[in-house]
Amino acid sequence: MPSLKDLRNRIASVKATQKITKAMQMVAAAKLRRAQDAAEAARPYSQRMGKVLANIAGAVTGGADTPKLMAGTGNDQTHLLVVCTAERGLCGGFNSQIARLAREHTRSLIADGKDVKILCVGKKGYDILRREFASRIIDRVDLREVKRVGFVNADEIARKVIGLFDEGEFDVCTLFYSEFKSVISQIPTAMKIIPASAPDFETEADGELDASVYDYEPDAASILGDLLPRNIAVQIFRALLENSASEQGARMGAMDSATRNAGEMIDKLTLTYNRQRQAQITKELIEIISGAEAL
Amino acid sequence: MADSFNFELVSPERLLVSEAAVEVVLPGTDGEMTVMAHHAPVMTTIKPGIVEVRTDSGTINRYVVFGGFADILPEVCTLLAESAVHVDDIDRTDLAQRIQNTTEDLADAKDEMEKTRIAEYLSHLTTLQAAV
Contact B48/B121 with Cβ under 8 angstroms? Predict the structure, then answer.
């Protein structure tokens, strides 16, 4: 049985923890709003980019000069997985969910006899994945210094990916991130970015002008050549934004339940504390009374 | 009064401008072009330079863009810029930094094709620096 002093100390420490988790929850809520706004603000660009790509892809595809970024290299032996996670923990299952999805994907690819290379964005994913796939991780990108994810960061990653692609390091590139559905639900998602998937274009293209009426300056193929790398940067940017919103959402949820748990714990401890205090008082009274009776 | 059309300037971070414009001058890769209402559908890449937008009321807004492309339709003109700022808010140190980076890239360039491409980009940047 812990002494009264021990109990008091424990209550005090749980209370301190509760204050911290409460504060973290509120910070996460504020950051979430900002992250959501950023994700919202970035949407027009990626939407229009999709439209333009759809248009132009319709005009170019099929020819022998279709850029490799869209047509693929012709085989799918080597896969590159870009795994985007957070830099910090304490956000519930956020990081482990993304890592689990990536791990399952990697295992099934290896089982099929494919080569897998992993590019980690964010520290947490690296920490989890390196236990099993240390030899397959070719690079990692650190975003710890970055306060707000900017397009520059995404562009840097995209450049890295495209550089590897141009050197023939991989055939297929898949992006792993967590899609932000709502504050309480974030869905880890895998998205293939190289080769750019054609069905996307078609669904987005409906209701648009027929591609053939367009004039292209300089010409369709070179615009497409310029556009595809940029599109990859945009996709990565979107993934990073979704990720940061999801991270904050997950953290908010995790900290909310942590605060609640701390509250319950405090209640329980206080109850034990009071009982014990009462028991002690009773004991002392009995001692005094029986002492007086003995006289 | 000339007809107006909807002009949108979008950067990856956000939608910068969406307004009715009468006339927009774009720094296309193959030369500057002026877009007015009922323009034939054109898609063009953009070099770093200044975009000039004349609105309905006659005011002229100037924006600095760093590469991108424009999607021009009879009623809308969408400019997807890699990065864009209003000409008054331009950060000169940022511009100087870009020029320096590009100069370094030029020194590292391996083949002729790349070298030409980067040199061209560099010249656009320096012209831009002179202009603002």
Answer: yes
CB contact under 8 A, A45 and B69: no
- Nearest to residue A83, comparing CAs of A236, A225, A223, A208? A236
Rg (chain A; Cα; Å): 28
Instruction: Using pLDDT thresholds of 50, 70 and 90, give the confidence band for residue B59.
Output: confident
Q: Which CATH class is domain B5-87?
A: mainly beta
Q: Residue A81 — very low, low, confident or very high, per pLDDT cuts 50/70/90?
A: very high
The pLDDT confidence band at residue A65, using thresholds 50, 70 and 90, is: low
* Residue B39 DSSP code: P
Mean pLDDT of A68-73: 74
ipTM exceeding cut-off 0.85 for this assembly: no
Q: What are the extents of the domains in chain B?
A: 5-87, 91-131
* Residue B53: closest CA among B42, B44, B62, B43: B62
pTM: 0.83
The 10 Å CB-count burial string (b at 16+, else e) for B69-87 is: bbbbbeeebbbbbbbbbee
**pLDDT of amino acid A204:** 44
Whole-number Å distance between alpha carbons of B27 and B50: 7
Q: Tell me B67's DSSP state.
A: S
- The verdict on A291 touching B (C-beta cutoff 8 Å) is no
Compute the half-sphere exposure of residue A178: CA atoms within 13 Å on the CB side of its CA.
29
DSSP category for residue B11? -
Say whether B10 and A226 touch across the interface (CB within 8 A): no
Q: Could you give the 3-state DSSP secondary structure of residue A43?
A: helix
Which of A225, A231, A230 lies closest to A68, judged by CA?
Answer: A225
Identify the pLDDT of residue A207.
46
For CA atoms A124, A127, A132, A136, the dihedral sign is: positive
pLDDT of residue A110: 92
How far is Cα A40 from Cα A189, in angstroms, rounded to an integer? 19
- pLDDT digit string (tens) for A159-174? 899 889 888 888 899 9
Average confidence (pLDDT) over A218-235: 82
Nearest to A215 among B11, B14, B41 (CB): B41
Mean pLDDT value of segment A130-140? 88
- Residue A74: is it exposed, middle or buried by C-beta count within 10 angstroms (0-12/13-18/19+)? exposed
Identify the H or E element spanning B79.
strand B76-81
Whether A84 is catalytic is: no
Distance CA B130, CA B132 (A): 6
